[in-house]
Amino acid sequence: MDYIVICLVALLVSALTLFSGFGLGTLLMPAYALFFPLPLAIAATAVVHLANNIFKTALVGRNADWRVVLKFALPAALAAMIGAALLNLFAGISSLASYHFGGQKHEIYLIQLIVGVLIIGFAIWDLLPAFSNISFDRKYLPVGGLLSGFFGGLSGIQGALRSAFLIKAGLEKETFIGTGTVSAVIVDVSRLLVYGFSFYTMKISQIESMGGIILAAIIAAFAGSFVGARLMKKITLHAVQIIVGMMLIVVGIGMATGLF
């Protein structure tokens, strides 16, 4: 069941992310979290996210504006490492509360609460016109990098903030896509360095056991990219935003309340 759920999410979301503005990690991370501890879920998502972005960089990276990349991605990389370190700190805190529902005991952990609230916040950011129309001047690119990188390291979610800062930075469409993709790769590498160092102390069997499902998700994500290229003319962006946004809110509530 875990392979089916995670690979389907990777396939579908990878297809959607080509034209929806939602990142692959935004929905893939909650799918992993259904079957694995949250810190491992976020790290596994980062691996798939990195592999998929490297694949996309080979296609569109040549269009990146490297001046913007330096201003945005370098602060983002530093902040991502800080966020990733905090993730490991929060993961070691005991549950805040527990309750019984549906005949089962559910516990609310600080890291689940934080990530759940972040997921809901980013979903609202994309769904509400008042937030989706927010844009920022180029001089705020380093600030945008710090914010998106920090939340990317802490929660695995960074696409909404990255797009908000880059989309109105005076970039052409191709340059925007290339710059965003290269920036995402830089952030993924930096947070994976922290995840890898931290998880080295975990039982090696826990990490090795995820190798197959990570590889399967990477293959599914690559396939989704090809599918998405053929679906671009058949689905509207608005419909995708509503569907994915509502899914995010449900997942965020479930994670914050300990149901997932």
What does the secondary structure layout of this molecule look like, with pairings?
Elements (H helix, E strand, L loop, with lengths): L1 H19 L3 H10 L4 H23 L5 H26 L5 E5 L2 E5 L1 H18 L1 H4 L8 H15 L3 H8 L6 H27 L4 H5 L2 H21 L5 H20 L4
Antiparallel strand pairs: 1-2
How would you characterize the overall build of this protein?
By secondary structure, this protein is mainly α. It has one domain. Helix content is 75%, strand content 4%. The chain contains twelve helices and two strands, in the order ααααββαααααααα. It has a two-stranded antiparallel sheet with strand order 1-2. Helix 1 runs parallel beside helix 11, helix 3 runs antiparallel to helix 9 and helix 7 packs antiparallel against helix 8.
Q: Total strand count, please? A: 2
Strand order across the largest sheet:
1-2
Low-pLDDT runs of 5+ residues are none
Largest sheet, in brief, is:
2 strands, antiparallel
General shape: globular
In sequence order, what are the helices and strands, one letter per element? HHHHEEHHHHHHHH
pLDDT average, as an integer? 76
Radius of gyration: 17 Å
Tally of individual domains: 1
Distance separating the two termini: 15 Å
Helix/strand/pairing class, anyone? mainly alpha
Q: Beta-sheet strand percentage?
A: under 5%
Number of H- or I-type helical stretches: 12
DSSP helix fraction: over 70%
